[in-house]
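User: C-alpha cells for this complex, please. No commentary.
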Amino acid sequence: MTWKVTYRIDRYRPGEESRTDSFDIEIEPHRTILDGIEKVWALHDRTLAFRHACHHASCGSCAFVTNGVEVLPCIVEIQDVVENGGEIHCEPLYHFPIVADLVVDMGDFFDKMRLMEMPIITPTDPLPDQPPGEYNRYENCIECGMCMSACPIVATNPNYLGPAPLAAALRTIKRPDSSPEEKARVWELVDSEDGLWRCHVAMECTAVCPSDVDPGGKIMELRRMATVNRIRSLLGMKPKHLVSE
Amino acid sequence: MTTPPTTEESKAYPGQSPRPRERKAVAWINPFKRDASYWGFVLNRVAGLGLVLYLFLHMFAISLLLRGEAGWDAFIDLTTSPVFLTLDVILIAGILGHGLNGLRVALIGSGVLVRWQRQLFYVLMTIAVVLLVVAGILVFTI
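Assistant:
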C-alpha cells in the first residue's frame, strides 16, 4: 500500500530568492521522511540539496525541520508525521546559516563542540576485523545540531555556547582522564555570560534530542555545580569537580 | 568572556543565507508543536512583558493622586467597572503564571527536580488555574 504525500521543501540558492517547492510522491507509510526526500531528488528534482549518510541515526548529518519540529528524518516514519494525502513541510535547521536548500553551515557549531573537547576520541579494543590502533567514538551525542535549532536562546544570541556544547562540557569535566588544565579551560568557557547562565530553561533541546543526551538536564547539572562552587569559594574551599580532582 | 573562535571553513560559503529577522522572531517565540516547557518559556516572556507594562500603568494610576480628590475618586469609580475587573483577573493570571513558573525555573535551575520538570510545570499550572478561578470569583463578588 502506498500513500500520496506532498513534500513542501524550502529552497534556497545563493543569490536567489528563497521559495517553497511542492512535490507529490507516492510512498509506503512505513518509509522514512529521508526516503521520501531521496525519492523527490531521484524522480523530481536532482538539484535538491540535502545531507545524509548513515540512514540509521548514527551520523546526525540529515537533521532538518519537519512540520515545525526538528527531526532526524532517517529514523522518523512518514506515518508518524502525516496521514495519507498529507503534507510534509521540510525546512533547514533553524539558527544556522543556510548553504543551500536543506543544507546548513555547521561550522560555528562544530567549533564550539571542539572547544569542549568534542568529539572525544576514545581508544578501544579493536574489533576482530579492525587493525590494532583503530579508534572509535562512543558518545551519545551525534552532533546533529537539532538542539541548537530548537533552542530559543541560540535564536537571539549567536555567542551562546548552546545545548550540545554545554552537554559536551559536562562530559569533559566529568571524564576521569581529562587533565586539570582541560577542565579549568572548559569551565572558564562554561561558567560565563554566554555559557550555562544564558540558558532560559525552555528544555526543548532535551525534547528534540534523538540520542537521549538530555542537554537541558546537563546544563542544569552544570548550574548546580557552579552554585556549589560559588558557595565553596565563599567558604574559602577549592572548586569541586575541577582542578582539585 | 571568551568568545569561541570561528574557523575559516565556516566562512567558506560566500552566498550562505542569514535568516530573515521575522523568521528568527517566529522561531524564538512560537511554542506550537513544542514541548510543555517551551510553553513555560513563552509564558514567562509574555507574562513578564505584561507585568512590566502593568508596573508603568500602576505608577500612572498612582500619579492621579496628584490631581486631587476628585481625580482620584473618578479613577476609583472606573476600577469597579466589569472591564477593569477583567483586567484585574488578567493581571492575577500573569502574576500566577509568571510567579509559579518562575519558581519552577528557579528549582530546576538549581538542579532540583530536573527530571520531573515537565510534570512540575503541569502541577504548578494546575495550581495557577485553580487559584485564578478562586481569585476571579472573589474579584467579581466582593
